[in-house]
TrEMBL record:
Pfam families: Nitroreductase. This is Nitroreductase. Its cofactor is FMN. GO terms for molecular function: oxidoreductase activity. Transmembrane segments: none annotated. Coiled coil: none annotated. Gene3D superfamilies: NADH Oxidase. Residues 10-186 form the Nitroreductase domain. Keywords: Flavoprotein, FMN, NADP, Oxidoreductase. Belongs to the nitroreductase family. It comes from Psychroflexus sediminis. Signal peptide: none annotated. It comes from the Bacteria.
Length: 210
């Protein structure tokens, strides 16, 4: 079994964290870079991630996450929020960024720009928000894999009240809506879940080979 697969077997949605053991700044930056390098549709990355260490802020958010202890016991709380305003200006800035980073004229990215304008920008608002949220989940998945590689525990969460998070973090003013949370830290020694076998579908059930 490859080391990567072993790490995926090792990880689980940690519910009980050790509040005395903190994720280092160096490891946090590695995990954030893994998020930044995640794949997304056209490379648009229509989301942002709010990284919260401040214990007072997390304490205020905790009731909106049904008082789950990992919100305050883990080292960090990450809020994945999708952008509700992916418009022509957003696309223009993206194309300009491509031009500057790759040191090529914007005209060379006209084909990419046309594809985005004829797809994403034609979506209804509901469809566009659903699309943006899916992109955020890709980044979340990449984070979980990277955290497992470093043997840092994580707990992805949908059990929270997005509207309350959005209000407390003033996300609406930034055209953002929270869609998922992840806590990062280290498991408590008495977290019973760490010794449970991972339950997943068998390969026969999950995969269809053609």
């Amino acid at each position: 079994m490859s080391n990567y697969i072993k790490k995926l077997h090792w990880r689980y949605a940690t519910k009980k964290f050790n509040p005395e053991k903190e994720v280092s700044e160096e490891d946090l930056e590695t995990l954030l870079e893994a998020i930044r390098l995640s794949a997304s549709s056209y490379g648009l990355q229509p989301y942002e991630v709010i990284v919260i260490k401040d214990p007072e802020v997390r304490a205020k958010l905790k009731p909106a996450a049904f008082s789950q202890p990992q919100i305050t016991d883990a080292s960090y709380l990450l809020v994945f929020a999708y952008n509700t305003n992916v418009d022509q200006d957003y696309v223009d800035k993206f194309i300009k960024s491509n031009s500057e980073i790759r040191n090529k004229p914007e005209e060379e990215f006209e084909g990419l720009k046309d594809m985005i304008e004829n797809s994403v920008l034609t979506f209804s608002e509901d469809k566009k928000e659903a699309w943006a949220a899916r992109q955020a989940y890709i980044a979340l998945g990449n984070l979980l894999s990277a955290a497992a590689h470093l043997e840092i525990d994580a707990c992805p969460m949908e059990g929270f009240k997005p509207d309350e998070f959005d209000e407390l973090l003033d996300l609406r003013s930034k055209n953002l809506k929270s869609v998922a949370l992840t806590t990062l830290g280290y498991r408590s020694e008495d977290d019973e879940l760490q010794d449970e076998k991972k339950v997943r579908k068998s390969k026969e059930e999950l995969f269809t080979r053609i």
